[in-house]
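ok so dumb question maybe but i'm new to this and my supervisor (M.) told me to 'just get the structure for GPN-loop GTPase 3' and walked off. so i did the thing. is this what she meant?? sequence i used:
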Amino acid sequence: MKYAVFITGAAGSAKSTTTHLLHEHYQVIHRRCTVFNLDPACDYLPYEPAIDIRDLVTAQEVQDFVQLGPNGALIYAFQHFFKNEREFLAENLDYEDDFLIFDCPGQIELYVQNDDLQRFAAQLQRKGYECCCLYLIDSTKLTEKKSILTNLLISQCVQMNMRLPFILVASKCDLVDENEIQDLLEDDCSDNEFYTELNALIKAQGLTEINYLRWDSEEAAGMLQGEIDHAFHFGE
Ligand SMILES: Nc1nc2c(ncn2[C@@H]2O[C@H](COP(=O)(O)OP(=O)(O)OP(=O)(O)O)[C@@H](O)[C@H]2O)c(=O)[nH]1
Ligand SMILES: [Mg+2]
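this is what came out, is it supposed to look like this??
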């Protein structure tokens, strides 16, 4: 079998760090793993990608040639890449028993106004890849009910767009008290009717089942592997 994992989440939510963690872990457990950087705006990566969107186009190059600011340039570069390279990517990604990891950009526009990634995932599926989407939320942003609901709703936008098995992970949990987040998640916000309705919807969707990731934990990579394997029904 062949597998592809899309690592998504808002800007700074630890996508590249998680990609690196997973890549190293797969090497340790002798899984063949290929890593792709799909972020045309990043300056630094903690890993060495096999394919790097920046070798073909960077957000800075777009900014230099087109009248766009940094966010518009990132989206333009991403769309340009998929318009011109989707066939190349799909033709070159055909490794038996392989795990592909895609480190994606954080801009929500790429998921709510654009279906390049979703179409690319569908193309991989046609080539026999099982795909899943891991969505990271920076847990330091989960400090009040409003931000929890907002972040979970944004995660739903990504899930709706990607149409793949979905894994929700709260990152940077070394910086927060997980129990406080869990209490906020379970609070039914009875003093605000709109939040109460939203909360019920989010609970019904199973979105309160978040995995907590702390990079100082020895179990972090194993937890990620377990969740991804579960999404793929790996070994069943
Ligand atoms: N304390 C703490 N910091 C973390 C953790 N994971 C990542 N970071 C830090 O968070 C920052 C952002 O991490 P990245 O992995 O670059 O995040 P990203 O989502 O790839 O960021 P963009 O690509 O810019 O959207 C970096 O300074 C990391 O070192 C964690 O578990 N705990
Ligand atoms: Mg990154």
